[in-house]
Amino acid sequence: MIQMNNCIQCSGLPCQDVQTGSNFIPNTPINPETIHSFMITEAPTEDLNEHLYASGNPFFLQTTLQAFADAGFKATSLQEIIDKGFYITTAIKCAKTGYDVTADTIKNCSKLLQQEMDRPVSQNSKSLFRRRCCNQNV
Length: 138
Known about the structure:
- By secondary structure, the protein is α+β, with helices and mostly antiparallel strands.
- The chain is 28% helix and 13% strand.
- It is built from 4 helices and 6 strands; from the N terminus they run αββααββαββ.
- The longest helix has 16 residues, at 103-118.
- The chain is globular.
- The model is unreliable at 121-138 (pLDDT under 50).
């Protein structure tokens, strides 16, 4: 099992057009062998209590469960979605301060997203990803 937030961190939080206090990389342990699909949303919410991975029943989770239900996959929890092989993350790692973000922010976050996507492994996936995260054998 790995936790992405232990493997990937933004150095110095350099972006000027996001709320760096809301910086978030998923913290839920995942089994990389089961991941076969990535769902990449835009950015985390300003309120980390409403983020997808927050405890309880956050709004982001409610809308995600509804999206999966609309696609024919009924799940009642984030763990159910993860157990079915879906890894969900954001493209931008901090909440936005406005409608859009600069090219520099996209570039900074795309490096983090690439690191994040290079971590999970599934033998069932058509893509091959690296098997190590933070020097942890998985």
